[in-house]
TrEMBL record:
UniProt biased composition (Low complexity): 13-27
Gene3D superfamilies, sorted: Chorismate mutase
Record lineage: Bacteria, Bacillati, Actinomycetota, Actinomycetes, Kitasatosporales
One of the GO BP terms on file: chorismate metabolic process
Start and end residues of each Chorismate mutase domain: 35-116
NCBIfam families noted in UniProt: PRK07857.1
Domain of life: Bacteria
Pfam families in the cross-refs: CM_2
InterPro entries for the chain: Chorismate_II_sf, CM_dom_sf, CM_II_prokaryot
A GO molecular function held by the record: chorismate mutase activity
Record's protein name: Chorismate mutase
Record region (Disordered): 1-27
């Protein structure tokens, strides 16, 4: 079966009868690009969307649990933020995911901090 994904929509065809540029050629099956197209057709984007929904749900759950801890500390006369604990969280993400894991952890902490 020859599965081809057309990528000609935004780029006009040549007018002199020659073949179009690589950007306008269809992607033949059996090439790396064809494999990517086949993967997409197989529903990989649906899986990514489903994973993103789960990640968003987990982030919201994390925010709620974090709020409980923060409110309890405030009620006991403490501070909302614990920098030593936040450093543990940052290190955890950096060890698991590398430098960009730290960036992700910072964003999670910002989302979880609530009102300061
Ligand atoms: C939830 C806590 O409170 C705050 C929120 C944190 C978090 O969301 O991970 C970490 C440290 C604190 O700034 C905690 O101390 O564990």
């Amino acid at each position: 079966m020859t599965t081809r994904t057309e990528h000609t929509t935004a780029v006009p065809a040549t007018t002199d009868g020659t073949a179009g540029s690589a950007a306008t050629d269809s992607i033949p099956a059996g090439t790396a690009a064809g494999e990517v197209a086949a993967e997409l057709a197989a529903g990989s984007r649906d899986r990514i969307d489903a994973l993103d929904d789960r990640i968003i749900g987990l982030v919201q759950e994390r925010m709620a649990v974090s709020a409980v801890v923060q409110e309890a500390r405030l009620a006991a006369g403490g501070r909302r933020i614990s920098l030593s604990r936040e450093n543990e969280v940052l290190n955890h993400y950096r060890q698991a995911l590398g430098k960009r894991g730290t960036t992700l952890a910072m964003t999670l902490l910002e989302l979880s901090r609530g009102k300061s």
